[in-house]
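Support request, priority: normal
Reporter: lab tech (M.K.)
Component: structure prediction queue

Hi team, I submitted a job for Alkylphosphonate utilization protein from Alishewanella longhuensis yesterday, and the status page still shows it as pending. I've pasted the exact input below so you can check whether something in the sequence is tripping the parser. The sequence length should be 112 residues. Please let me know if I need to resubmit or if it's stuck on your end.
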Amino acid sequence: MSTLPACPACQADYTYQDANLLLCPACGHEWSANATESTEQTKVIRDSAGNELQDGDTVTVIKDLKVKGSSSVVKIGTKVKNIRLVEGDHDIDCKIDGFGAMSLKSEFVRKV
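Reply from support: The job had stalled in the queue. We restarted it manually and it finished. Here are the results:
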């Protein structure tokens, strides 16, 4: 009988295996049975100047950006506070005053 590792998210011992995935019924976290935590690599997100971005940073827009589905434009120099980094093409989630919640590409911002 093999013992499965505890859940890396909540440390519960109730994990079970389904095909190549390990699952935690306590929190719903799924991870690969073949991967180890030491080999996990996190993607580093950088701004237009090459500075590393982190959650909670304040950035400035470096180019006028058209808002899809609207005639509005986010102007150059707009300060965006408290960003959140996410996976995907638009790798920054934020709230911009006057526009609301938006997703931005890191190549169009500069860290303040």
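The chain has no helices and eleven strands. The first strand starts at residue 16 and ends at 18. Let us know if anything else looks off. Ticket resolved.
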